Amino acid sequence: MAGALDIALVQTRTPATAQAGLDHVAPLIREAAAGGAKFVLTPEGTNLLEQRRDRRAAVLSSEDQDVAVLGLRRLAAELGVWLLIGSAIVRSGREGDDRAANRSLLIDDKGAVVARYDKLHVFDVDLPNGERYRESATVRPGDGAAVADTPWGRLGLTICYDIRFPHLHRQLAQAGASMIAVPAAFTAPTGEAHWETLLRARAIETGAFVLAPAQGGLHEDGRRTWGRSTVVGPWGEIIARADHDQPCVLHAKLDMEAVAKARAAIPSLTHDRDFAPVR
């Protein structure tokens, strides 16, 4: 984990079909690579954002047939960068379950998929402003956590609503993750209230870099997302942050030695104790 790593977070406003999603994100990834990034991360729903169930069903593909996933794998190989597709909305492949998978895909610099993670925690909520979300109606939750090796250290994979579950992030850090990805499509109300606080808390608790590329703005399906893509250091400090919800590229340089320093200063990851459950 020694040395510095040049990364870029790509902030998007993804359209409602995979081809349009690819056309939207590819120039931003090219911009990121041209700016020196060796590892590029995109948000949740990079291939498409469509919450209307009938319209989503009409455009959904399997991972191995999704034009955005295939195109981004080719692009990573062409540019010679590692790429995290923060998530792709694809067919889950589970017999008898027509819900999609919300799947994060880590792509190496040869274009190969080296890790997959299906979002564990789905967003079912009624917001105070009247907005209602039932992600479980269209997305099948995953059933396992994931940590992947990269040339710069281990990467823990999460997606959006997972940020509200500290125990998941703790387990990723205890499994060796020095970076934790939090690709997101946070709603505007919850983003304004909680986004930065949650990101900084997870970084402090784990002593890891938290890398959070986000969707931003008003989407074709009517949802509005918060944007404000953010990189947080292992001491909880903001390293880079977009201050808006427009599509953009956010560059940052990570000092990977900072992880060991933070964990040595506050070694809480090694201080777990068994205790009696609450009764």
Structure notes:
- With 279 residues, the chain is of the alpha/beta class.
- It is 27% helix and 29% strand.
- The strands form four sheets. A six-stranded mixed beta sheet has the order 5-4-3-2-1-16. Strands 8-9-10-11-14-15 form a six-stranded mixed beta sheet, covered by helices on one side.
- Helix 1 runs parallel beside helix 3 (67-79).
- The model has no long low-confidence stretch (mean pLDDT 95).
In short:
This protein is α/β, with parallel strands linked by helices and 279 residues long.
Over the alpha carbons, how many angstroms does the gyration radius reach?
18 Å
Shape: globular
Number of strands: 16
User: Whole-number average pLDDT?
Assistant: 95
- Helical fraction: 25-40%
Low-confidence stretches: none
Helix-strand makeup class: alpha/beta
The number of helices is 6
- In angstroms, what separates the terminal alpha carbons? 42 Å
Sheet with the most strands: spatial strand order: 5-4-3-2-1-16
Question: Beta-strand level of the residues, as a percent range?
Answer: 25-35%
Name the quaternary structure.
single chain
